[in-house]
DNA sequence: ACAGGGGATGTTATCGATAACTTAAATAGT
DNA sequence: ACTATTTAAGTTATCGATAACATCCCCTGT
């Protein structure tokens, strides 16, 4: 900046102002400064700006995996919502592990983000403390934690699956199974299974047809393997709810390989309304959790908080939508 | 740090050293300092560190879309390879648009990354200038640019599709079509189509069965629409190569909806070896571009450059693998 | 016993932009 | 015509860690 200032015959402060949107600089002078900067190949150094202004224009985001269309959609909604204010996403993946999450959160907080968005409401004790002390707004998403750390934009995974069970029972299915992972690593998956069990139990139905298909998040392949197990172990099953559309699709393909009619012999439901679910043959009954809206609404909350329009912890409840398609009645 | 120093009875410099891996601090003293820091709820402030040390421990990465399993895999490979050195990924999406890419690159360079990884070898003139002047190593991936900016880890998209055409011709197919997007936004998609055309032309085969199915990247749905068009316009087609596995799967489902036998009546191939391709029924013939290896190798190049083990521009050529599955002979 | 070397610690100045304050000029208002 | 207000600059000090250099102490070898 000093070079540009010398070249233009102004003070460095004026150069600094020329690089800000609302900087108090005359229009032609600003144009000249920016032209000189471009000619010299100058690129603004935000590390200095970050330190002095105590603003980084980062929003930290943790998601379980970047290779998941649902979370990617949430990130997209966030990115779009925050871009207009010049806020950049600093993204990290937790690999569905709350200890990895703790490490990641600490790393991210060192960068002094303006806000931090986490996926889910279950964290290690230390992660909770770090977030509470961070001084920046915290938003928990994709869940409705009983004891929120700050703001919440999400829904109850358990309730969503309960809705699916209710629908299946109303449609006449009774012997219903659940396919999920074999550990509590993926807290959303665990909540979905819990929702299945309570909904079945409430109606006096057998809630023990549970297939565990590998370490969460389970893949299409694992969904297929799970369906194979299910057909062997519980051949009388009429319908199966899978923890995600990916495993549901895998399960569907296993039926196709075995010549098992879907939905005639067995109905299948997934979760997440991935594009796959709409396109596959048959298309998949599923639950749309409005992933991109979670991102958009989260961005809205963050902007409101940073602009002082929102002071109380926000709680935005997304209502997942049941989508009945060809894989079930 | 000053507070911790006072509390512990050492100088701030010693506290600073205690937070570095190889800092010259006695083991018990370091433990005491870290304990005091934890008790005070101190979180290291990297903004100051970034400025003074002129190191950010960021590696900037631009990908076309985060909602793509291939690019997500590359990011995963990168993340894993760089994590051991404490390097964090700063990720941005270009939306398959080189003008968005230019803006993104400028934004990212302001953060002074240690290196920058871009997807593809086609950039705006200004983006090229920015990258060339950045002073940090540049790696172009997922392509083999004729005029590289720096390091390259990739493969020829055109050659990969040529290999697929060769295979199809060897398998006896002659009337072969290509399904892709309708614009040159996605340069990899454009290269793949070009590879198809030259390979067909070289063999004297009709290379005009080209279906454009919407703005790249084309979705499963658009792949299905494209297959509908193809079956109407060129009903004699024996095989179709799709720009990606997603569109190939969409195309497959359209055949299933219409009762068109795959591969009996028409063969289908995709690109990318997404999990979908291995699981679907029939499974999809495709090309594995080893996305995760691109990420790993790129991480390797970056570490080599930063450690001074690599001074010349690296050119790492990945050999895509043809995977023949049930959707073709 | 003493030079030489390495490990642990302290001191000082600095990274590069900008917040906060001040000043000068221009414009508006009565 | 003269004060009040706005606009466009300049000055100075600072954000918080750390590079670079200096110091001290302990250990080793001869």
Summarize it.
The structure is a homodimer of 329-residue chains. Chain A is built from 13 helices and twelve strands. Chain A is an alpha/beta fold.
Search tags:
13 helices, 329 residues, 4-stranded parallel β-sheet, homodimer, DNA-binding, 6-stranded parallel β-sheet, 12 strands
Question: Would you write up a description of this structure?
Answer:
The structure is a homodimer of 329-residue chains. The first copy, chain A, is α/β, with parallel strands linked by helices and 329 residues long. Helices cover 46% and strands 15% of the residues of chain A. Chain A contains 13 helices and 12 strands. In chain A, the strands form 3 sheets. Chain A has a 6-stranded parallel beta sheet, with helices on both faces. A 4-stranded parallel beta sheet of chain A has the order 7-6-8-9, sandwiched between helices. Chain A starts with a helix and ends in a 6-residue tail after the last strand. At the A-B interface, helix 4, helix 5, strand 2, helix 6 and helix 7 of A face helix 4, helix 5, strand 2, helix 6 and helix 7 of B.
Q: Which residues of chain A sit in consecutive blocks of at least 5 with pLDDT less than 50?
A: none
Largest sheet of chain A: 6 strands, parallel
Q: What is the 3D form of chain A?
A: elongated
**Amount of beta strand of chain A:** 5-15%
- Straight-line distance between termini of chain A: 67 Å
**Which class do the helix and strand fractions of chain A yield?**
alpha/beta
Strand order of the largest sheet of chain A: 2-1-3-4-5-11
Classify the oligomer: homodimer
The rounded Rg of chain A comes to 25 Å
- Considering residues with a beta carbon less than 8 A from a beta carbon on another chain, report the largest interface and each chain's count: A-B, 50 and 51 residues
